[in-house]
Design goal:
Blueprint (H helix, E strand, L loop, with lengths): L4 E6 L2 E6 L38 H17 L2 H6 L4 H13 L3 E8 L6 E12 L2 E15 L6 E3 L15 E6 L5 E4 L15 H15 L5 E6 L8 E7 L4 E4 L4 H11 L5 E6 L6 E7 L6 H4 L9 H10 L14 E4 L2 E4 L12 H6 L3 H5 L2 H4 L4 H8 L23 H8 L9 H13 L26 H16 L4 H4 L6 E8 L8 E8 L2 E7 L9 H11 L2
Parallel strand pairs: 8-11
Antiparallel strand pairs: 1-2, 1-3, 3-4, 4-5, 5-6, 7-9, 9-10, 12-13, 12-18, 14-15, 16-17, 17-18
Length: 547
């Protein structure tokens, strides 16, 4: 990409400013529609004319510059013809001025990396006599047309704005919902600028509670979601409405620690829950924008699931914290072989606590036959830990699942593999339940705000079983697989690690869950490896900060 090229439209007048060395001023639109570029609608060239192979450096520079120039000028037809999907590109580009009401734009291209060209947009949005500047960064990719062989911009909605997905559109006008001011449990205002991971949650709160909160609408630029049930996402506020106040159970200090913690790893999520009440204290993701994986993800939780399995085995009298269990390096169950990490084994005299703290898979698998009920784990998860009930947290969330299974698939569930799915919220709740013995449905918005009915589990664990689970988790944090991660955490603490294998993925997902006094937290890091290595430090950081 030619350095320093800036494309600008000011008051409808097109201009090009060139800041790079060795280039004169020129009109980037010269040559549009020539045989060298363009043509999302060009007729197919003859086989002799169709160029193949990767796009060249010059093609990348030429095509991207002409596309950005046409877009900045407001020439949607020309810009769309420079893409490989003119039918989708043209209405999106037209909407940039007609629906989003962008009246001026300066688009500055950065240095290309391969076929990707980054750029910044400095625009002006005007609506109802009000104008406001709007800046953001995005990127495009230049590819070779399949039929024409010409270099074309690979069309994606994110070319217009990085947060745009398929089927979504930009719009500026009077907001469809009144503004809200979400506050934490102590009245601290929560903003997406200070707490980026809360962006989608704050949008959801606005959609759900703006009417009850009593605010008034303002003028905004927003993304119309492709999903009718999802909240629209505000990108720019031109005129502020009067916000109504929405209380949450979040804690600003804990949230800040969670935001900082997840920045260590891409694909990281963490949630903190107060065991005695079920109140959610923090939710954070990296990346912070977009999908709220911490509350909406659904993945195998690995050995963190052994908390539920241990509760089942202890309740059935098949194991106890201080009783010896076998932990061979591998074991077969109904034709499926299971083994421990690096095929380790433990002496037969070692206790169930030792197998739990060192995450011995085979110790749990060997006891399945004695349970005599393939559906027992799912029942334990639902009846004691609330997994599979319909949680009403106050925002969009996905409940954990332990579906019915048989044979080797049922055995895999005992160690958090197979068809079990959880997210960080679910596992934080599992730990919170183990901590107190009673499931308290996680909430982010107090139910008193809207009168929604929270679900309850069928029964609690006995004090004896609860005590054993706490002791085994304390052992994991003190001398087991969670020792390194939890060494900086003070107070009454416990943990469980997990490494979930994913088909086709080189490294396992890292899971970790733990408690400190009256706070439980769980984290997952995609392709993070062992639970104590990646997810563990995230949980520890949140527990240290939490209240």
């Amino acid at each position: 990409m030619r350095s320093g090229v800036k494309v600008a439209v000011v008051g409808g007048v097109f201009a090009v400013v060139v800041g790079g060395v060795g280039y004169g001023a020129y009109n980037i639109l010269d040559g549009l529609g020539s045989s060298g570029v363009g043509g999302g609608t060009d007729t197919k060239a003859t086989s002799a004319e169709v160029k193949t192979g990767p796009v060249t450096k010059d093609e990348i520079a030429d095509t991207s510059e002409k596309f950005l120039a046409a877009w900045a000028k407001g020439d949607a037809a020309t810009a769309a013809a420079l893409t490989n999907n003119e039918g989708d590109a043209k209405p999106a580009l037209v909407g940039y001025s007609e629906s989003a009401h962008v009246t001026k734009a300066v688009i500055t291209a950065g240095t290309a990396t391969g076929s990707k060209v980054p750029y910044t947009v400095k625009a002006t949005v005007s609506y109802g006599g009000t104008t406001k500047p709007w800046s953001y960064a995005s990127e495009l990719t230049v590819v070779r047309g399949l039929t024409t062989g010409r270099p074309l911009v690979d069309w994606l909605p994110s070319v217009i704005h990085p947060d745009l997905d398929k089927g979504e559109t930009l719009e500026t006008g009077e907001s469809q919902t009144a503004a809200i001011e979400a506050v934490d449990r102590n009245g601290t205002v929560l903003t997406k600028e200070k707490y980026p991971s809360l962006g989608t949650i704050l949008d959801d709160l606005r959609k759900r509670y703006s009417a009850q909160a009593g605010g008034t609408a303002g003028i905004e630029t927003w993304i119309n979601s492709a999903n009718a049930d999802a909240a629209d996402r505000t990108l720019l506020t031109l005129v502020k409405g009067k916000p109504g106040k929405v209380p949450t159970t979040l804690d600003a200090n804990t949230q800040a620690a969670a935001e900082t913690a997840v920045k260590q790893f891409s694909g990281a999520s963490v949630v903190a829950v107060k065991p005695s009440t079920g109140e959610i204290r923090a939710v954070a993701n990296n990346p912070a924008s977009g999908f709220n994986a911490a509350m909406q993800g659904a993945q195998a939780p690995g050995s963190t699931m052994k908390i539920v399995t241990a509760a089942l085995l202890i309740e059935k009298g098949l194991a106890s914290a201080n009783s010896p269990v076998e932990c061979p390096k591998n074991v077969m169950y109904q034709g499926t072989t299971f083994h421990n990490l690096k095929y380790f084994s433990l002496p037969d005299t070692d206790t169930f606590t030792s197998s739990f703290a060192q995450s011995c898979n085979t110790a749990f698998i060997k006891l399945i036959d004695d349970v005599k009920d393939d559906a027992a784990l799912g029942k334990e998860a639902r009846d004691v830990f609330g997994i599979g009930l319909v949680w009403k947290t106050g925002v969009t969330s996905v409940d954990g699942s332990v579906p019915e299974a048989t044979g080797g698939e049922a055995a895999a569930q005992y160690i958090g593999q197979g068809t079990v799915t959880m997210n960080a919220l679910n596992m934080a709740s599992v730990t919170a339940t183990a901590r107190t013995g009673t499931f308290r449905q996680p909430v982010l918005v107090p139910s008193t705000l809207d009168g929604r009915r929270l679900v309850t589990a069928a029964r609690s664990l006995s004090p004896n079983v609860t005590g054993q689970l706490n002791d085994m988790m304390r052992a994991t944090a003190s001398w087991g697989t969670g020792k390194a991660a939890m060494s900086s955490v003070r107070g009454d603490k416990g943990a469980k690690t997990g490494s979930a294998e994913v088909e086709g993925q080189g490294k396992s997902n890292s899971w970790f869950t733990g408690f400190k006094d009256d706070l439980a937290a769980a984290a997952v890091v995609q392709s993070g490896g062992h639970g104590g290595d990646a997810a563990g430090p995230l949980v520890a950081a949140v527990l240290r900060a939490g209240q």
